[in-house]
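Many introductory courses stop at the sequence. We go one step further.
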Amino acid sequence: MEPYTIPAQTRIGHVHLKVADLSRSLAFYCDLLGFELTTTYGTDAAFISAGGYHHHIGLNTWYSKGGPPAPRQSAGLFHTAILYPTRRDLAVIYERLNKAKYPLSGASDHGVSEALYLDDPDGNGVELYWDRPQDQWPQKEDGSLDMYTQRLDLYGLLAELRQGS
């Protein structure tokens, strides 16, 4: 087979999740995280988005209604990553999660990005993050990325809310 490189403009369009309880998932993704409901398919599926796109996340109970979460020690989706446009936007959702007492499973600085980790009501991993500008990404001597995982300064993240107010 001939080598192939995917076009640089390619993006992940959406993720479609199997959930046990559609109403519970909509409460998490729409009411807590702020996604907008764009359409439903009867009582078993819903599509949600940010900014009016047809859908960034599909939620369905077609094969999973009332079912248990997928086992952690099995193959499958590790997390869905939701990219926020700015560090301040990440701070806003972090403050919202704090006020709702919604638990985080982690918070990391990866050099190229800062991320909050949590699980949705079905145990699906969710990463909420923002990317630093590309010219600030750490590099190794050979020019390749020098990504890392360090503890995210959550107090520093919240300080974004006080800047410029």
